[in-house]
Structure formats: structure tokens, C-alpha cells
Amino acid sequence: MKIGNIDLGEKPLFLAPMEDVTDASFRAVCKEFGADMMYTEFVSSDGLVRDAAKAIAKLRTYDYEAPIGIQIYGSIPEAMVEAAEMAENAAEIAGGHGADVIDINFGCPVNKIARRGAGSGMMKEPDKMVQITKMITDAVRLPVTVKTRLGWDEDSKIIVELAERLQDVGISALTIHGRTRCQMYTGVADWTLIGKVKENPRIRIPIIGNGDINSPQKAKEAFDRYGVDGIMIGRATYGHPWIFREIRHYLDTGELLPQMSVTERVSLAKRHLAKSIEFKGEKVGILEMRRHLSCYFKGLPDFKETRLRLVTLTDPEELFATLDMVAERWGTTEAPAATSIYDVPESL
Fold first, then answer.
1. What is the pLDDT of residues 2-34, one digit of tens each?
2. CA–CA gap between residue 348 and residue 190 (Å, rounded)
3. Alpha carbons 117 and 68: distance in angstroms, whole number
4. Confidence band for 347, pLDDT divided at 50, 70 and 90
5. Quick check: is 336 in a domain?
6. 3-class secondary structure for 15-83?
7. Which residue among the candidates 30, 108, 182, 295 is catalytic per the annotation?
8. How many CA atoms lie within 13 A of 84 on its CB side?
9. At what angle do helices 282-295 and 24-32 cross, to 10 degrees?
10. 169 shares its domain with 197
11. CATH code at 271?
């Protein structure tokens, strides 16, 4: 599968953009476990245009992450074009590697975004969605991709026609989440319409499927049954970033890997924590790691008191010592099956 001239190989696995989750430290971990392509947290076009420090900081990527996409969202066409141009020049603006792909978020269902007509709010205005996409593809040299949903609600599933229109204005790939905006993250993702888009003889660009892929078996079924070119995984990576390794192994061999041991999870948590502190400094790095530290060990028996320490300690030495204690106390315990947190805002 190719996005523009970027060759991602056969059946690539993508890390979805997730607000407050897919920062540089988490992306480093996911890359370690085999994510073929990753995206930044989604970046506000209004924030970029205003030179907001938080938005600018999200543009920074690193060479080892390549190929990587920077995802932008917004509802004002001119601001979206300017943001896309800034994302294309991210290396000059924010330092680091920069962007290999510009991705447009037309799928985030979160109220604060959709109610402003951005994200999946754009599903109510498909003409404007296509207009913005064309303006961006005309303005930048990098490949442009789009991430969206099936439609606004059950009565307006427009994705089959919309996919053609987006392709025809120049996008290089399309990611489809198998829910409407009104479904948010409830119910079961409908992959049948994703399959219909892929089956459409007019579609020439790669189609990436997204939604409810939380096991190697589901990933294989998505490829085999619906014929998608790639799979994007979002919330199922949270507390379980090694899912990329599990899926790739299953696709290659048909065999399931054993559960990651508690000792291995401690080692991973320590690497992740160290990277978070490296990228964000001690205070912020520790604060933003708390959600991950508790999830890596979800399901361990008699873990409540230790979990409380992991999410309240502020001293890095104490945190690393607590993680060593987890390995010492629970290292011989059978590791629980990895579970996913399904309330993470995701740009789907």
C-alpha cells in the first residue's frame, strides 16, 4: 500500500490520532511495537493560525517516527489551508522531522469540536468538506489524506458517494470509521459500508478501515472480509500498545502471541515514563503518564493501593521504585489479558 510515494508495505497498521494520548512518548512506544504509520494528536487550525503554543508544540515530530502524519481540524476554509501549510513546514516551525502526510480530521465526534462544525460536524456539510479538501490539496505538496465517518446519523450515511468526491479532489488515502457521528463510540462499528467503498470500481486510492479492532482476530477478519488496504487502531492501543506486534505476528503466522508478562509491562512502563519526562519535563511528563501507568497493569489482583501510588506520586525516583516493586511482587503472577479503555477522545 502506498500513500503518495510512501510505501507502507502489505497490510499496514496505523496508530490513530488521539487527543492527550498520542503524544511523542506514546508514539515512540507504539513504533517500537510495530506501528507502520502514526499520526500526531489532532491539531486545531485556529490554534495554529493564532500561533498558540500548545498547537505549535504538537507539530514537532522525530526522525524515527517517519513516516508520520500531522492531523488538523477546523471549520474555516482559509484557516484550514493556512494550518495545512504550517503543518507542511512543521520542521521549520517546530523543529524535528516534520510531516510526511497532512491528514484532515472530518471525523471527531466530540461535542466541543462537532458543534462548531469541525470534525464530524462537517458531515452535515459535505459540499464544504469537499471544498476544504480541494483547497488543501491545491495548496500543499505533501500527500493529503482524510479521516471521517459513515455519515452524521443513520439516515445520512453518505460515505460511498463522499469517498468518490474526496478522491476526485486529490486525496491520497481515506480512513473510514464504521460509525456515524451520532453513534459517538457506542454500538458496534459497521464495516459493511467500509467494504462497499473499497469494492467501488471507481475508487483508486487506499482505503483504511477503523473501528473496534481490538484483537489480532478482528484485524485479520477486517483484511480478509472487507478487503481494506490498511487498518487504523485507536482506543485499543491505550494500555495495550503492543497490540501492533500481536496483530502482525498473527497475520504472518496465524498464531497468537502469549500475554505480555508483568515484568515486561513494568519494563515498558519505565521506558514510557522516561520518554514522557524527557519530552515534557518532570512535572508535566509525570502528570500525563498517570493514565497510562494504571492501565498497563489493569486486572492485577490486590493492586488498588499500588495503582493509587502510581497516579499520585510526583517524584520520579519514587515512581520508578514503585514500578520495580510491581515487578518484584507480581512478576510471577499470570499477566491479565490486555484490556482497552474505550473512552479516549479519538479523531475518528
1. 999 999 999 999 999 998 899 999 999 999 999
2. 13
3. 26
4. very low
5. no
6. ECCECCCCCHHHHHHHHHCCCCEEECCCEEHHHHHCCCHHHHHCCCECHHHCCEEEEEECCCHHHHHHH
7. 108
8. 29
9. 50
10. yes
11. 1.10.1200
Q: Which secondary structure element, helix H or strand E, spans residue 230, and what is its range?
A: strand 230-233
What is the average pLDDT value for the chain, to the nearest integer?
A: 92
Indicate whether 320 belongs to any domain: yes
H-helix or E-strand spanning residue 207: strand 207-210
| Biggest CA-to-CA distance, the chain | 59
Q: Please say whether the beta carbons of 174 and 159 come within 8 A.
A: no
Same domain for 205 and 282, yes or no, is no
Are 214 and 273 contained in the same domain? no
Mark whether 156 and 59 lie in a shared domain: yes
Q: Residue 150 in contact with residue 190, Cβ under 8 Å? A: yes
Residue 117 and residue 75 in contact, taking contact as beta carbons nearer than 8 Å:
yes
Q: Which of 252, 272, 294 is the last residue of a domain?
A: 252
Q: Is 108 a catalytic residue?
A: yes
User: What's the pLDDT tens digit per position in 76-111?
Assistant: 999 999 999 999 999 999 999 999 999 999 988 787
Distance between CA 29 and CA 294 in Å, rounded? 16
CA distance 345 to 112: 11
